[in-house]
Design a protein that fits this description.
The chain is of the alpha+beta class. Helix content is about 30%, strand content about 25%. It has helices at about 5-10, 115-130, 135-150, 155-160, 160-165, 170-180, 190-200, 225-230, 245-260, 280-290, 335-345, and strands at about 1-5, 25-30, 40-45, 55-60, 65-75, 75-80, 85-90, 95-100, 105-110, 215, 220-225, 235-240, 265-270, 295, 320, 330.
Length: about 350
């Protein structure tokens, strides 16, 4: 089953497009009884990731049902939109599709796609992991490994790979998983997106050269990481936000490390991803928590984390330790590991 509404956010990066030139006609029918929609509401279908151009339009009838025909090439993720609301994504393959709202489960039953069934079964197992109190990131990665291995040649494997990016770093293992996918998926937009991200992995490999970051500090002055390194300092570039619970949990360790090693040539370059419009609260938070190192604002005008794209940062906290000669020495240090690593390098 797909989760109503919320699945759109969960698979926002998961897009589909044509796999070939041959087209086929598919009938898509739906029963939306139990949803908040009404007779006469516009039902629109589009290939998600294809500029969301509408491929079919109809309306809900008096029984809250619809039926329409689409002509598609290859396997696709199709987006159902009703009355201007993105409702659910589903896979279309070679068979007709039925979409029925299950009012009791407040969920959709979607039939007609084996890949859709595979995705739903895998996501059900993922939900079970999330429910466990003893679950770890490695449990999720193990499931991703299994699902991708069993679905290398279809949209399920490509889709499920995104869960690795949510809990693990874009590292060598991610590259292995990505390279294991069948090249028939290479013209999928998400495949192309992953390929671009992989080119950035070289920037997060230990020993990689620093790619400079220049951002405004609390006084509006532009501060460069490269210049800090050139001044002879070891620099921890720390991506965080005041709204991030795990980030706040790391602050005492950062404060302790800074007090101990700053006199010996250590600096923290704290990049805040707080929401635009909360700058004053951010500054007050810094003062209240004794965060006396270099603090800069990293959220761009659109509210994105674009400054960290070259490091594939898609979750925080995330940090990278650079030597005075601008080489990456360690990354994603947590808790007491920060002081341990610094003690190895700063005498």
């Amino acid at each position: 089953m797909n989760r109503i509404m919320t699945l759109i956010g969960a698979v926002a990066l998961m897009v589909g497009c044509a796999n070939g030139n041959a087209t086929k006609k598919i009938t898509i029918t739906g029963d939306l009884n139990g949803t908040p929609f009404a007779e006469g509401n516009t039902v629109a279908l589009s290939i998600y990731g294809e500029g969301e151009d509408t491929i079919a339009t109809t309306t809900l009838d008096k029984d809250m049902c619809f039926s329409t025909e689409v002509e598609l090439a290859g396997d696709n993720f199709v987006l159902l939109n009703v009355d201007g609301n993105n409702v659910v994504l589903f896979v279309v393959e070679d068979n007709d599709i039925t979409i029925d709202f299950n009012e009791e489960a407040y969920d959709f039953d979607i039939e007609g796609s084996k890949t859709q069934e595979s995705i739903e079964a895998a996501e059900e197992r993922l939900s079970e992991i999330f429910m466990r109190e003893d679950a770890t990131e490695q449990d999720i990665i193990a499931l991703v490994d299994e699902v991708v291995a069993a679905n290398r040649d279809n949209l399920c494997g490509l889709h499920f790979l995104r869960y690795y990016t949510m809990v693990g770093s874009l590292d060598e293992h991610f590259v292995e998983l990505f390279n294991s996918l069948d090249k028939s998926l290479a013209n999928q937009p998400i495949y192309e997106s992953y390929a671009e991200q992989i080119t950035n992995i070289k920037n997060t490999t230990i020993g990689a050269d620093l790619q400079d970051i220049v951002l405004p500090n609390t006084e509006g002055e532009m501060v460069s990481v490269a210049e800090l390194c050139k001044s002879g300092k070891w620099v921890l570039v720390d991506f965080w936000a005041t709204w991030c619970g795990p980030c706040r949990g790391e602050i005492p360790y950062l404060v302790a490390a800074y007090e101990k090693f700053a006199p010996k040539g250590f600096e923290i370059y704290g990049v805040s991803f707080d929401r635009n419009g909360t700058e004053d609260k951010w500054k007050q938070f810094l003062a209240d928590n004794n965060m006396t190192w270099v603090n800069v604002w990293g959220t761009d005008a659109e509210g994105a984390w674009s400054v960290a794209e070259h490091l594939n940062v898609n979750a925080i906290p995330a940090n990278f330790l650079y030597s005075p000669d601008g080489k990456l020495v360690a990354k994603n240090l947590r808790g007491e590991d920060i002081e341990k690593i610094l003690a190895e390098h700063i005498k």
